[in-house]
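Propose amino acids for all 188 sites.
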């Protein structure tokens, strides 16, 4: 019992504590805008689907950006608002979509929107594909985190079960063999 308490205390001292953030809670005040955009990839995918729906419904990309910015997470919302305002003023699409390209989650979307502005093609299918890719990346990252957690749990389990196995499995066998060897004069 004493060894278990010592190992537990050692584990608590060695393993650094990380703050836990509940799902759906707001990011901390110390996080950067890029971290805040990366915190919920499904929200960004939903925003891209909403943007595609607005464009399919007949809205211009500028009007769709203004409409979607009202419900988008903050880093993406300010980028969409700024891009929509710049496009409404007649700015170059490359310069207008530059803030959206700064976020890792929406960099491919900015590229698609720039190309669409230059060529005049419909962007709705490209936005839907980008949303599907965003969801796929989020699923892959979640599976990778779950796999890593499965590997990391083996350390504490080994620290708990290995001493118990030695004490309850190996020590009695060795004591039993040593007792019979000493009792019979070396012949088991």
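Proposal:
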């Amino acid at each position: 019992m004493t060894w278990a308490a010592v190992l537990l205390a050692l584990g608590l001292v060695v393993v650094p504590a990380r703050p836990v953030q509940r799902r759906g809670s707001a990011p901390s005040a110390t996080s950067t805008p890029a971290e805040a955009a990366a915190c919920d990839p499904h929200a960004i995918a939903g925003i891209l689907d909403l943007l595609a729906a607005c464009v399919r419904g007949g809205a211009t990309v500028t009007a769709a950006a203004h409409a979607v910015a009202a419900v988008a997470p903050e880093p993406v919302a300010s980028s969409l608002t700024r891009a929509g305002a710049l496009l409404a003023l007649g700015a170059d699409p490359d310069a207008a979509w530059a803030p959206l390209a700064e976020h890792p989650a929406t960099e491919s979307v900015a590229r698609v929107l720039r190309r669409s502005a230059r060529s005049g093609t419909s962007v709705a299918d490209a936005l839907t594909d980008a949303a599907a890719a965003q969801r796929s990346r989020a699923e892959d990252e979640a599976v990778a985190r779950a796999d890593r957690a499965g590997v990391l749990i083996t350390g504490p389990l080994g620290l708990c079960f290995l001493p118990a196995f030695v004490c309850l499995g190996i020590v009695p066998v060795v004591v039993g063999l040593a007792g019979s060897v000493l009792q019979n004069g070396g012949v088991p």
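The two ends are 33 Å apart (CA to CA). Confidence is low (pLDDT under 50) at residues 22-38.
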